[in-house]
Please model this.
Amino acid sequence: MENKPKGLTAWNLTTMALGCVIGASFFLGSSVAISSAGPSIIISYILGGGIVYLILYALSEMTVANPKVGSFRAFAAQQFGQGTGFVVGWIYWTGMVLGMSSEATAIAILVRQWYPISIGMLASIIIVVVTLLNLLGADRLSKIESVFAGLKFFTIVFFVILAILLIFGIINKTPIGLGELLNEPFMPRGIKGIAGSMLIVMFAYAGFEIIGLAASEAENPKKTIPKAITYTVLLLVGIYILYVAVLLPLVPTAELNENISPIVVSLKKFGMPWAGTVINIVLISAIFSTMLASVFGLGRMMRSLSMEGYTPKFCLDNTDVPYRGILFSGVAMLIGLGFGLLFPRVYLFLISSGGFSILFSYLIIIATHMKFRKKNGCPPDGKCQMPGYPVTSWIALISIIAIIISMPLIKGQGTGLFVGIGLIALF
Model:
C-alpha cells in the first residue's frame, strides 16, 4: 500500500457504519421481531445493543493495539493460526457477496414498480454502479454515505415526530395516548418471544464491523475507532428504541408482517396513503447505501486475504484503494446474481447462509479477543479496554452461540445454519 495520510474521521466511520446497518432489516425486518416479542421488543433492542457494544469494544481493543488491514480476520489468524484466518475471511466474504447480490435484486424489484425493466438487468446495473462508486476511495465514499445516512436519519426523525403528533392528538384532534399498548400485554409470548426476536434484532444491527475493516484508513485509529464505536452504538440503540416506542401505540403488533414496513402500516391506518411510495423510495436508498458500505468492506477483506496469498494473484494490488479486490467482489456479485436467476431455489438456499456468516464473524471476534487478552494482558489505563472483562466476554460469547443455535426456530433461517456449517467444512 502507498504511504498516504489517513483521512477517515470518527464521524466518517460512524456514517459508514450507519449506512451499512440501517437497511432492509430495519425498515422491513423489524416487523418480524416486533410480532415475535410484542411491546417487549424494546428489551430485545436494548439487549442486542448491549451485545453489539461488547463485540465492538472487543474489536476496538484489538484494533487500537494493531490497526492492521483485515481487522477481525487478521486478528483471528494471529491468535488461532492462519487456517482460522482463512476460514473466517472467506466465510465472511462469501456470505456478504451472496447477501449483496440478493439486495441488488430487492432494489430491482422495488424500482420495477415504476420502470418495467427486467429484474436481471436492473440488478446488474445496480451492482456495477455500487462497484464503480467504491473505486472512488474511502474519503469520497464516506461523503456519499453521509448523504444516504442523513436521508435515513431524516426519515426516521420525520416518522417519530409524526407519530408523536398523532399520539398527542395534534394532527387527528383525538389523542391516541398509549393506544394499542393498552390492548396487549407487554410480553405476550414471555421470555420465548424475546428470545425468538433476538436473531432478527442482531440482523438489524449487522454491519457495524465495517468500522474495524476501515480502521487502517482512519485518521488516528487509536482515538478515532473508540469514538466511532461509541457514536455508532449510542445512535443505533437510541434510534431503534425511539422508533419502536412511538410505533407501538399506533398499530397492533399482530397486524405487522415481513412484506410491508411497520411505518407504512401505521401511517396508512391514519389516512396517509402516500406513506407506501415514500418509504419505498427511502428503502431503495437504504439498501443501496448498505450495498455501498458492504462492498467497501468486501474490498478490504479481499485485500487482506490477498496479502496472505489466499486469493488468485491478480487480486493483490499495492494502491491505497483495493481496486482489484473491489472489482473481483463486484464480478462475484454479478455471478451470484446470474446464478440466482438461473437456479432460484438453489440460490435461496445459499443466500440463507448470509446471516450465519455475520454471526460466525461476531463469535470469532469475541473468542479472538479473549485469547488476545489472555496473551497480552489488560491494556494500560487510558487505553481502549473491554469493560467488565472477562465476565462480559463470556456473556457476549454465550449470547451469540445461543442466537446461532436458535436459527432453526426462525422461519427461513434453519437452512442458513446448515449451509453455513457446510461452508466452514468446505473451506
